[in-house]
Write a structure and sequence with these properties.
Number of helices: 4
Helix content: 10-25%
Largest sheet: 18 strands, mixed
Order of helices and strands: HHEEEEEEEEEEEEEEHEHEEE
Shape: elongated
Radius of gyration: 25 Å
Number of strands: 18
């Protein structure tokens, strides 16, 4: 036990020294110098909003909280170990544990019995019910029921019930039943429903899989490319509905809707047929399923019934194609 305590203190001191060059730490220290708080304290107790003993800008190596939930910029930087009820800080470097863990920057290991939340995460953050970050998540975010990142995900994100990766997801995303993404790059899995604007990798939706544009693989009982099949998904699919895909679909039913025409515009604001055509020659989709429908037409189909608007035949069993 003494060794563990010694390691925690050593880590906190080293982190505090390293953070001396951090402009956030320096800036806060300069600003607080005129307002009265201590620059540094070895031990701090946060009793509640605006009340701490002592009032300090930096804490190293021990911080204790009762209930402290405030504007993160008004809280100190914490280096080392932070424990308590709702334990929060401007920046947390080290280990944090409590009923809930929060901060502007969570760097290291954080475990909240109910939640881990904040703006940016670097390391490992665990929330018994949920994890939620308003900016970027780098590392592993694990939420018992839900994991949400509104910025980019770089690494892994797991949610027992659902995952929301609302910008780029680079790595591995696992939603127990539901996964919503924007740009999925890597491996994405949901046992029930998965939908995303773009997929560049492997997207697995056990029951229902809807993607606006794909340069990868779709797996599910029902796979849809550019076909939302629900009004609430229309705005998600619309942004990429005119971008051609090179994809594979594996499922019971595979459905590819035609590319958006006429007044549709691509991501760069150019009319369809200009920049999109320069970036890719054409769409090509390979489908493996019981029923395959390709309303754009280019690709291969293997299944009991294959429907292709431009295929060898409009409907043909076993194999159909348009090369």
């Amino acid at each position: 036990m003494k060794k563990i305590f010694f390691l925690i203190i050593s880590f906190g001191l080293l982190a505090g020294i390293a953070a001396g060059d951090n402009p956030d730490v320096k800036g806060k220290a300069d600003n607080d110098a005129d307002q009265g708080p201590l620059f540094w304290t070895p031990v701090r107790l946060g009793v509640g909003k605006g009340c701490s003993l002592p009032d300090a800008s930096n804490v190293c190596p021990l911080n204790f909280n009762m209930v402290e939930l405030d504007d993160f910029n008004k809280l100190p930087n914490i280096f080392g170990l932070s424990i308590g009820g709702i334990t929060s800080g401007r920046s947390l470097y080290g280990i944090a544990s409590g009923i809930a863990v929060g901060g502007d920057y969570l760097n290291g290991l954080g475990a909240g019995a109910l939640a881990s939340f904040g703006n940016n995460m670097n390391g490992l953050q665990i929330g018994g019910l949920f994890t939620a970050f308003s900016q970027d998540s780098n590392g592993l975010a694990l939420g018992g029921m839900m994991a949400e990142t509104k910025g980019d995900v770089n690494g892994m994100i797991f949610g027992g019930g659902a995952v929301l990766a609302l910008q780029e997801m680079n790595g591995f995303a696992l939603g127990g039943f539901f996964l919503r993404g924007k740009d999925l790059n890597g491996l994405s899995f949901a046992s029930g429903v998965l939908f995303s604007e773009k997929n560049n990798g492997i997207a697995i939706g056990g029951l229902y899989n809807a993607v606006g544009q794909s340069d990868g693989i779709q797996v599910g009982l029902l796979n849809f490319l550019r076909e939302p099949m629900a009004l609430e998904l229309s705005h998600v699919i619309a942004r990429t509905a005119n971008l051609p895909s090179r994809a594979c679909q594996f499922g019971l039913v595979n459905w590819t809707k035609e590319l958006a025409k006429s007044n549709s515009r691509n991501e760069s604001g150019q009319p369809t047929g200009t920049q999109a055509a320069k970036g890719k020659d054409h769409e090509f989709v390979i489908q493996f399923g019981l029923i395959n429908v390709n309303r754009e037409g280019d690709g291969l189909q293997f299944g009991l019934l294959n429907f292709s608007r431009k295929g060898f035949l409009k409907c043909f069993p076993i194999v159909n194609f348009k090369l």
